[in-house]
Amino acid sequence: MAYRTSEIANDRYIYSESLYRLRAGTFEPVRQERFFYDVAGLEGLDWRVFWPLNFACLAACVAIGAFMRKRTRKPPVSFATAG
Question: By the 8 A CB rule, do 11 and 38 touch?
Fold first, then answer.
């Protein structure tokens, strides 16, 4: 089981992981880890906000590159036959 708490201090959160073993119909705790992580001045900017922004920037770069490539492409050479 894993869970994250709400903010416990300014930009500080707790992430906990627990491992249980089922014995005789009851859960027995085996191990528990607790991690602290800070958002440190980003004020709520975590992966759920950053990932769409990252995707939008990447899409804009690809679109600009495709436009520039199309713009600088030379016209095809045509061979006219004498007739």
Answer: yes
Q: Are 12 and 36 in contact (CB under 8 A)?
A: yes
CA–CA separation, 1 and 79 (whole Å): 71
User: For 70, how many CA atoms within 13 A lie in the half-sphere containing its CB?
Assistant: 6
What φ, ψ does residue 9 adopt, rounded to 5°? -150, -175
Nearest Cα residue to 32 out of 1, 69, 68:
1
Tokens 């894993």 belong to which residue? 2
Tens digit of each residue's pLDDT (9 = 90 or more) over 2-59: 888 888 887 788 899 999 999 988 999 999 999 888 876 666 667 777 888 889 999 9
Q: Classify the phi-psi angles of 55: left when phi > 0, otherwise alpha if psi is within -120 to 50, otherwise beta.
A: alpha
How far is 35 from 8, CA to CA, in rounded Å? Answer: 13
